[in-house]
């Protein structure tokens, strides 16, 4: 088990440099070409930069989550989390004709990076299992009592028991 954590630490550490390089050169390119960029080109660079920042944050959380370290927790606005998830999955949402409607969601106490990764993986898996032939409505809502329950409701996706289990697998 200790060797697994050491390998995870090494891989996460080694991933930092290329991701930092991607972000820094994208920012440099955007800065130098700012006046000559078409809006779509600026959007693409912004997407690269925000993706690199999310990857940097995720790597930081992996390193913080290793034994002897604790993930930082704070107040997390789930509406912001859903905006990031929707932005990250925009290509898949458009390709699969998914109508994605997050309701107003509460703030929770947790780790923003890990919550973003959790929802992105779950929603990405659901989108992956949808059909290209029909439009899918994916609604995210919450009920609050003593704890927050997140409800992901798909009005058009019919999954077998096996497919449903696959939604919760990382790959």
Count of DSSP-assigned helices: 6
Largest sheet: 3 strands, mixed
The total beta strand count reads 5
Strand order, largest beta sheet: 2-4-5
Helicity level: 55-70%
β-sheet strand percentage: 15-25%
- Low-confidence parts, pLDDT < 50 over ≥5 residues? none
Rg over alpha carbons: 18 Å
Helix-strand sequence: HHEHHEEHEEH
Distance between the termini: 22 Å
Which class do the helix and strand fractions yield?
alpha+beta
Shape: globular
Mean pLDDT across every amino acid position: 79
Question: How would you describe the overall organization of this protein?
Answer:
By secondary structure, the chain is an alpha+beta fold. It has helices spanning 2-33, 39-64, 78-88, 90-95, 112-128, 161-166; strands at 74-77, 98-102, 107-110, 136-144, 148-154. It has a three-stranded mixed beta sheet. Helix 1 runs antiparallel to helix 2 and helix 3 packs across helix 5. It is globular, with a radius of gyration of 18 Å. It starts with a helix and ends in a 5-residue tail after the last helix. 11% of the residues are buried. The mean pLDDT is 79.
Features:
5 strands, about 170 residues, about 55% helix, two-stranded antiparallel sheet, 6 helices, alpha+beta, single chain
Describe the secondary structure blueprint for this structure:
Elements: H1 2-33, H2 39-64, E1 74-77, H3 78-88, H4 90-95, E2 98-102, E3 107-110, H5 112-128, E4 136-144, E5 148-154, H6 161-166
Parallel strand pairs: 2-4
Antiparallel strand pairs: 1-3, 4-5
Helix pairs in contact: 1-2, 3-5
